[in-house]
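Duplicate of earlier report; Threonine synthase input re-posted below.
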Amino acid sequence: DIDDIAETLADSIAVGRPRNTIKACRALEQSGGTSVLVSDAEILEAETLLGSTEGIYSEPAGATPVAGVQTALDQGIIEQDETVVVVSTGFGLKDTKSAEKATGGVDRIDPKITEVEGLYGTAEEAAADD
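Output:
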C-alpha cells in the first residue's frame, strides 16, 4: 500500500508518500520487472560488503539495492552470470550509527601511518599479497 511507511533503519527510503509512486509502478509493470523486499539485517550486510570489497561508504538506503540484488540472486530472479548495475548515492556519513552497527563498531586510532600499519599492515605487505 502506498500509504504504508516502512519500519526500517534505511530512513531515506522509509517515506509515507514517495514521489512518483504511480510512475515507478507503471515502469516496473511495463518493463516486465519485479521487486523484492529486504530486511534491515540484509541492508547492514550489504553496507559492510560495499565497504570491504569496493571501498564505498554507503548509508543504509544506498546499500539497499545491493541487498536487493543478493535477494534476487538467492530467489533465482537474477542469474549468476548476468550483469547488474547498482546505483548507490547515499553517502555513509549521513548515518554513521548504522555503519557502526553493521561493522560491530569502529577502531579509533591516532592519525599516524604507524597506527594504520599496525592494524592493516604496510603497503608493501598488501602488494605482496596480490
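Helices lie at 21-31, 40-54, 60-74, 96-103, 113-120, 123-129.

Merging into the original ticket.
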